[in-house]
Specification:
alpha/beta
């Protein structure tokens, strides 16, 4: 199936997708702040440049988009155009995610991952997500993953 827009338009559209300060990321930051947590964002000297860093809890949180990180959920589907490019791109993203997560854990950081599908759509329990994050931050579990 061919794309419904020309290559230059698609390129412009894709380049406009933000890597930082996305709506899901801002939502998680808002939920955390509302629950009394203070944090730093986009710390460049940590592996993977975590979206949210809670130094007091020695924890980091990544807010992953289901498409860009290849989450097997209803929000992810393989593009039909340039399939080889996209399979390699998403495979590389997954590999980088895994390396960053392992490096953080080895250095004593606790790692939380919140998937976009946990936040999007009708009937999503955002307070439930906030409660899971709060509980995780207050205990010593090294890894947390929240998805839809």
């Amino acid at each position: 199936m061919t794309d419904i827009v020309d290559a230059s338009t698609r390129s412009r559209m894709m380049s406009g997708i933000r890597a930082k300060n996305t709506k899901p990321e801002i939502l998680i930051r808002s939920l955390l702040h509302r629950n009394g947590f203070r944090f730093r964002i986009h710390v460049h000297n940590l592996p993977g440049k975590p979206d949210i860093v809670l130094t007091r809890y020695h924890a980091v949180i990544f807010v992953h988009g289901c498409f860009w990180h290849g989450h097997e959920c209803s929000l992810f589907k393989w593009p039909r155009t340039r399939p080889d490019f996209w399979r390699e791109k998403i495979r590389r993203n997954r590999t980088n995610d895994h390396k960053a997560r392992e490096a953080l854990i080895v250095n004593g950081w606790r790692v939380g991952i919140v998937w976009e599908c946990a936040l999007r759509g009708t009937g999503k329990n955002l307070e439930g997500v906030a409660q899971k994050l709060s509980d995780w931050l207050r205990n010593n579990t090294p890894l947390l993953e929240i998805d839809g």
